[in-house]
């Protein structure tokens, strides 16, 4: 075998060996079930447009405000609910393999002229596990980033409160965040951490707001 043929043979063997080391991770899937509710009456809202990021199917809610997204790729999703005469709301969920993530979304009716209007949404969240006790079990913290906006045209907000629900594999946890002085048209990005014992987090949503 001459030198040229030897080099070609070595290159072919190297290429085949490299290909054999590559592994293709199969896609995994889960589901999303949710319901869109009127924040003032807590009644389901029909015909609400539901979109996600990353994109999945665009659907509308049923008569009772419920919706389902089946066989979506696992990972984090932002779910946006929008309908005329209501403020759009976005929540974040984590879809795990073979599991169904739950999203409960509250829509605020649009305010008329001259009224205070506060909107809030979860922009990002992370499940953080820390070993802090002698049992050996990891403790879970929800690290949450959220946005608050004064969507009034000309009215300042002196003080506001935002209420969160953290849905986990064990129970639902609540959190209240408050701040002051949000001018008309102003937005504020803030964050918090919440200890949720030894559970797994499914979703984190804004369950209500208050403006004074």
Mean pLDDT comes to 84
Helix content: under 10%
At CATH's second level, what is the architecture? Sandwich
CATH fold annotation: Immunoglobulin-like
Low-confidence stretches: none
Number of domains: 1
DSSP E strands, number: 13
Give Rg in angstroms. 23 Å
CATH superfamily: Carboxypeptidase-like, regulatory domain
Q: Strand share of the residues? A: over 45%
Explained architecture:
The chain is mainly β and 212 residues long. It has one domain: Carboxypeptidase-like, regulatory domain (Immunoglobulin-like), CATH 2.60.40. Helices cover 9% and strands 55% of the residues. The chain has one helix and 13 strands, in the order αβββββββββββββ. The protein has a seven-stranded antiparallel beta sheet with strand order 3-2-5-6-13-10-11, with no helix packed on it.
List keywords for this structure.
212 residues; mainly beta; Immunoglobulin-like; seven-stranded antiparallel β-sheet; three-stranded mixed β-sheet; 1 helix; 55% strand
Please give the structural blueprint.
Elements: H1 3-21, E1 29-38, E2 49-53, E3 59-60, E4 66-73, E5 75-82, E6 89-95, E7 100-107, E8 118-130, E9 139-150, E10 157-168, E11 172-182, E12 187-195, E13 201-211
Parallel strand pairs: 1-7
Antiparallel strand pairs: 1-4, 2-3, 2-5, 5-6, 6-13, 8-9, 9-12, 10-11, 10-13
């Amino acid at each position: 075998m001459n030198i040229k043929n030897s080099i070609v043979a070595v290159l072919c063997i190297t290429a085949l060996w490299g290909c054999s080391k590559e592994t293709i991770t199969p896609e995994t899937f889960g589901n999303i079930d949710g319901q869109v509710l009127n924040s003032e009456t807590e009644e389901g809202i029909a015909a609400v447009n539901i979109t996600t990021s990353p994109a999945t199917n665009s659907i509308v809610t049923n008569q009772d405000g419920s919706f389902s997204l089946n066989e979506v790729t696992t990972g984090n999703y932002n779910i946006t609910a929008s309908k005329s005469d209501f403020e759009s709301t976005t929540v974040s969920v984590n879809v795990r393999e073979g599991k169904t993530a739950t999203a409960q979304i509250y829509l605020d009716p649009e305010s008329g002229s001259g009224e205070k209007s506060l909107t809030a949404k979860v922009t990002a969240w992370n499940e953080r596990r820390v070993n802090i006790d002698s049992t050996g079990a990891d403790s879970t913290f929800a690290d949450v980033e959220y946005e608050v906006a004064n969507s009034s045209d000309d009215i300042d907000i002196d003080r506001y409160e935002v209420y969160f629900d953290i849905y986990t594999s064990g129970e639902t946890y609540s959190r209240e965040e408050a701040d002051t002085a949000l001018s008309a048209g102003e937005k504020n990005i803030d964050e918090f951490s919440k200890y949720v014992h030894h559970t797994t987090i499914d979703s984190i949503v804004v369950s209500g707001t208050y403006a004074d």
